[in-house]
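Structure representation.

___
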Amino acid sequence: MRSCDIAVLVTTSDRELNTAEKELISIFEERKIPYIIAKNKMDILDKTPANTERVIYTSSILKKGIEELKNAIGNISGKTQSNDLHFVSDLIKPNDFVVLVTPIDSAAPKGRMIMPQQLAIRDIIDANGIAIVTKESELEDTLNSLGKIPALVITDSQVFEKVSKIVPEEIPLTSFSILMARYKGFLDTAVKGVKKIDELKEGDKVLISEGCTHHRQCDDIGTVKLPKWLKSYTKKDLDLEWSSGTGFPEDLSKYVLVIHCGGCMLNANEMIFRMNSANSQGVPFTNYGITIAYMKGILNRSIKPIFDTEK
């Protein structure tokens, strides 16, 4: 339930809620999960009570009440979804050029782009901006041939250092991972948490966590590149552990730092749950992109476009 957006509790129409169902409702309310009670088997009642905002009567045999249930879910969804949620559109204006640096490495899905890149392109189009997609190897030529200074450059974190050297200081620069941290609601926490890297000691346990369960390639960012950069930056032999998918540990007390992926395959509720789990146990929490930018000395530059806009 930690990743649940809306709960639908299905029970029967011919009885009151039982103890287990009441316990579930208590959990929904405690976790602030919006919920609806679907009272099924209305066909066995002599008279069906009127629906309310919270309780909808249905019959799977008669196929009744289904539209009403869908509408009730839709009404709750409309109330809980924020119209202020942006990936990048609030950082640009109509007709702005936005350059997206998207390296294609061995771990990239064939024939597809990863979700943050898709989100960026769609959000730019919705804002009437112009998305220009290029690889890091073609970035310099791309910038020189535009004929117009882009409003923003967004890069994959793995090539942050290289891209930062190519993109002039006057052009705002950030990463997909940093934008994802903001989109999922944990950017401030991640920026504060990353400073723990400077305090790491020999043998400290660090958790590197991914939300997806993709097959790891030989040059995987979470298990190969990030550990290499951490060792190079800290000059320490750290005790690294990994988690993926839903396997996020409940007990984080043995770790001194959690470095999470951008969370593109997890919803905001799950990411906030993981962040809060770390916070409640006193463990700093950050993500890949912010960690890489910090170790490469370009974090302030890469979060400036976001914080300047929010001010």
Remarks:
- The chain has three domains: 7-80, 89-180, 186-295.
- The mean pLDDT is 91.
- The radius of gyration is 23 Å.
